[in-house]
Write a structure and sequence with these properties.
The complex is a heterodimer of chains A (486) and B (95).
Chain A (H helix, E strand, L loop, with lengths): L2 E4 L2 E14 L36 E2 H13 L7 E2 L1 E5 L9 E5 L8 E6 L5 E13 L3 E3 L6 E5 L6 E7 L6 H18 L11 E10 L9 E6 L2 H20 L8 E5 L4 E4 L3 H4 L5 E2 L6 E2 L2 H9 L5 H12 L3 H8 L2 H12 L5 H19 L10 H12 L5 H14 L3 H8 L7 H14 L1 H8 L6 H12 L6 H12 L2
Parallel strand pairs in A: 13-14
Antiparallel strand pairs in A: 1-2, 2-11, 2-12, 4-17, 5-6, 5-16, 7-8, 8-11, 9-10, 12-13, 14-15
Helix pairs in contact in A: 2-3, 6-7, 7-9, 8-10, 10-11, 13-15, 13-16, 15-16
Chain B lengths: L4 H10 L6 H19 L22 E2 L9 H5 L5 E2 L2 E5 L4
Antiparallel strand pairs in B: 2-3
Classes of the chains: A alpha+beta (486), B alpha+beta (95).
């Protein structure tokens, strides 16, 4: 729980997040129009989405299944009966004049999401509910000084609104919550989590209180569409509320709009009266009643989720919580790691280190992704085998890896071509050691007189240099000690 | 339940219906009559009766997740008072 130091003492943040996650489906929630992103305006609109008179919505089975899968992934209660209601408000990109949503009886009830904090600890954040609803269309206000352009392609696409309990205590925890939620949604395949394209959008509910005191009045900041902005919006709003409260003012319960360019939010006064949504059950839609077998069938097909996978990586492979966390954040990364391991008898820790540090480092630096990287799991595994059997030293392995990345060749070929094979032949190493000793009588004297025992390290360095890094450092050490009488 | 003049104005505003002051006065009486009439239902004991959401005794029909519609902006835009470049065009609305 992060405390904010105000002029008059400490304040505590109480944060709840509402995340709108676009459901992965081919067709919309209540119509057969496509959900694909980026199509030409109004080309993916059925007459239902355009709210033409007399059109009737018919619920998409897959969207229901996706909501249930997500509920199961959040260890939440699945409500076998749920009800669609109309949320009434006027806006040009909402042609029906109401959004079909769920209000009193959502499809998913209480659950829990475990967030991972940077210090390796975890915290459980309660999930209040998850409900299905329609997305609105898209308004463009900046194309013309006097007119607004409306595209209804997004109108009617299924959203899951996922509401947390006010268990989040800092901007950092809020960031961890979104990261984890996005990771789970991607594992489940229920939302692509792409914040740039608006597939995941977030509203921040925040109030301040003195530690231990009852909840204060909250505000809702809308339109925060990246994890960084969520954190900025939280810091900004917490400061603003503390300033108001310490000056003796009161917090108005209001909706605020975040401006990413300024890093500030402002009150959306026009929204206030419109908050009277007059929900009522949609007469076009019967209550949604699920069979327990339907839910059980989906539960049986659920993939291994990040927390379970992390636990398994730590138990089966002996990985640190940090390495396991990095590897499981994205399902594809975890799968890559396991396919590196699967190619042979490979040390899981060495493999984890190479995957998270060198391999992901190279991916980032070159801006490629796993699918078109020049080095695949088998090739990386080949390099690990050459390290394990002593063919290359770990130091030269980095050079080999860089060459593999540039050429796409496998490790054995690079080692052969560049002559980077580690010298393990004692005779060859001994010859180098003898030459280094003969060339440096001064240092030999320092060592054998006992004046400077640490000079042995310098000798190792000289031998490694003379062998162009190819001598096995362990063998070098042994031979040096024997020759120098240590 | 009954409504007063302020509630009538509020409802009119939410519904984007223009109501002249004289009409609003008359609507208070009319709406209260309707509400009073509906409230007779309160005389029934419905304590153990679940709300009836439909007169049809059946579950929600579900549709397969297939793209079967859309792909043609022309009929969608045909009745719009104004459109351009494939968009609906409306008077500017900005928060």
């Amino acid at each position: 729980m992060a405390l904010i130091e105000g002029e008059t003492g400490k304040w505590e943040m109480v944060i709840g997040l509402e995340v709108h996650a676009q459901v992965i489906s081919n067709a919309k929630l209540f119509s057969g129009a496509s959900t694909a992103f980026g199509a030409t305006p109004n080309s993916q609109v059925s007459l239902i989405d355009a709210a033409m008179p007399g059109m009737l919505p018919v619920l998409n089975r897959e969207c229901v299944a996706q909501a249930v899968r997500t509920g199961l992934g959040l260890k939440a209660k699945i409500n076998l009966t749920s009800v669609f209601e109309r949320k009434n408000y006027f806006y040009p990109d909402l042609p029906q004049g109401y959004q079909i949503s769920q209000y009193q009886q959502p499809i998913v009830g209480e659950g829990v999401l475990t967030i991972d904090l940077p210090d390796g600890s975890t915290k459980d954040i309660g999930i209040e509910r998850l409900h299905l609803e329609q997305d609105a269309g898209k308004s463009m206000h900046d194309q013309d000084p006097r007119r607004t352009f409306v595209d209804l392609n997004r109108s009617g696409v299924a959203l899951m609104e996922i509401v947390s309990k006010p268990d989040i205590g800092s901007a950092e925890e809020a960031g961890a919550y979104i990261h984890k939620l996005r990771s789970i949604l991607r594992y489940l395949g229920t939302c692509d989590g792409n914040m740039d394209e608006g597939s995941l959008r977030c509203d921040v509910n925040l109030s301040m209180r003195r530690p231990g005191e009852p909840l204060g009045t909250r505000t809702e900041t809308k339109n925060v569409n990246s994890i960084r902005y969520v954190q900025q919006a939280i810091e900004y709003e917490a400061r603003r509320q503390v300033e108001v409260l310490e000056a003796g003012g009161v917090i108005e319960q209001e909706t605020r709009l975040f401006d990413a360019r300024k890093g500030e939010s402002r009150s959306m006064r026009s929204k206030e009266e419109a908050h009277d949504y007059r929900y009522f059950p949609d007469p076009d839609l019967l209550p949604l009643v699920l069979e327990q077998e339907f839910v059980d069938g989906l539960a049986a097909e659920l993939p291994e989720l990040p927390d379970e996978k992390k636990r398994r990586f730590m138990e089966d492979y002996g990985l640190s919580i940090y390495d396991a966390g990095v590897l499981v954040a994205e399902q594809a990364n975890a799968a890559f790691y396991e396919s590196v391991l699967a190619g042979g008898k490979r040390d899981p820790k060495l493999a984890a280190n190479w995957v998270t540090v060198n391999y992901f480092g190279a991916l980032n630096a070159s801006g490629t992704d796993l699918d078109d990287a020049p080095v695949d799991a088998a090739k990386l595994g080949g390099l690990l085998d050459l390290i394990a059997d002593g063919t290359v030293s770990s130091r030269l392995a980095k050079e080999v890896f860089e060459a593999m990345w540039e050429s796409g060749k496998d490790a054995a070929t690079i080692v052969e071509e560049k002559g980077l094979k580690q010298i393990t032949d004692e005779g060859a190493i001994e010859a180098i050691v003898d030459k280094v000793i003969a060339d440096n009588p001064g240092q030999v004297e320092q060592y054998s007189s006992g004046a400077n025992p640490k000079v042995i390290g310098w000798f190792v360095g000289q031998v490694m240099k003379a062998s162009q890094g190819k001598a096995n450092p362990g063998t070098v050490n042994q031979i040096l000690k024997r020759k120098l009488g240590g | 339940m009954s409504v007063n003049l302020d509630t009538v104005r509020h409802i009119a505003k939410l519904a984007r219906v223009r109501v002249e002051p004289a009409q609003a006065e008359a609507l208070v009486g009319e709406l209260n009559n309707i509400l009073g009439w509906v409230e007779q239902l309160g005389e029934l004991d419905t304590k153990d009766v679940p709300p009836m959401t439909s007169v049809v005794e059946r579950g929600q029909p579900l549709r397969e997740d297939r793209v079967t519609d859309g792909g043609d902006p022309e009929p969608v835009l045909r009745n719009a008072p104004d459109s351009a470049h494939g968009f609906f065009v409306v008077p500017k609305v900005v928060e």
